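Q: Convert this sequence to structure tokens.
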Amino acid sequence: MLNRIINAESILKLGDLIAGSRNILITCHLSPDGDAMGSSLGLCMALKNIGKKAKVVVPDTPPKYLMFLPGATDIVVYSRSQHYVERLFASSELVFCLDYNEPKRIDLCVIKREDTTFFCGIMLNRIINAESILKLGDLIAGSRNILITCHLSPDGDAMGSSLGLCMALKNIGKKAKVVVPDTPPKYLMFLPGATDIVVYSRSQHYVERLFASSELVFCLDYNEPKRIDLVADAMLASPAKKVMIDHHLNPADFPDVVISHPEESSTSVLVYRTLLDLGLGDAITADVAECLYTGMMTDTGNFSYNSNDPDLYEVIADMVRRGINKDFIYRKVYFSNSYNRLRLNGYALVEKFEVFPEHKAALITLTREEMNRFQYQKGDTEDLVNKPLTIPDITYSVFLREESDYVKVSTRSKGDFPVNLMCKEHFNGGGHLNAAGGEFYGTIEEAVERFHMLMPLFDQYL
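A:
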């Protein structure tokens, strides 16, 4: 039995406020002590127990000795996630102010600048929709088993974004796995976590069980289900919520949350932005940053195209501060040639490389028999399509590689030449202005004939 000390009118009014609120924030003072942390976390859990969406926001990092408290790892720290906290306040119907008597005690010094976000001293332009971030935050909070998928023949961006996100989710206590449709290239297996990837073509039934038991599925670096090939049926059949993070044009509408920004140079940099917006900056360890940086580097040709965004270099600087060794990553990606890979690329450039000066175009072709002659392994022709662009008068380059039942088309260009248009309209693909790909269903001779037919048509873009 307790003596009543709280005014009855205040209790009635508070009851009405709680009843009429769904999104509730709880704040406490700077340098939170045991009372601030205990009262905030206790109230937060009590509100959740009656069906409310509640979060605790603190001005700065709580002391380690209090992190054993239930719910402590879910606290949002303003000094790390200013933009996310501002969104939380903007979308809340009720805010509790615990263990402080005036606003200055919470020290929320918000730097406001239109369309600009400050993350731990990193200034980035705001690009991701606030509603998408809030919805994604709720999905992650409510999920334990999470799958991350990326496209067929995963490149550096697909692998880097997937592995980086996977480790970040593990760092906040989630059970996360990466699933890829087919075997990743060997030159990317140095990435942290790469050996834990589950390959669908080797473990079909296991992957199907993973999809069936997951609560959340991320779709990274692809814009429609066909890009994940045979994995698509299991992904779409999964009861899990779906989240797309991608930078390709024309995203499909199957996901529950879509974060699509074709103007961004890579999915990896979008994952980095998303993690910061979610208030998960602390989850970006050196290993996470190494994966994301690899994706950023490879999808821009070591920052030689689609890379003139100042924000990109703010991100890189932050990743270096987090502990990556960018020179090491460059060496692992670009200085990892095997004897046969060098011979294959040399053969392609000496014997199978043509230039068409009147069209400012270049073409490289390789048949399956030619690749087998040099013991081709996946990834051995990565970056080959870029080589012709080192010739000043070449505006675009096309590489045709014969597969078992189709011809793989890779294209790159300079300036405003739209190789994505060529791939979309004529090679069953798409991509970005200066980097695109597709597939041709016919013989390699027919693919070459198609290319010859297209060159005069695309002269208008030169």
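The first helix runs from residue 8 to 19.
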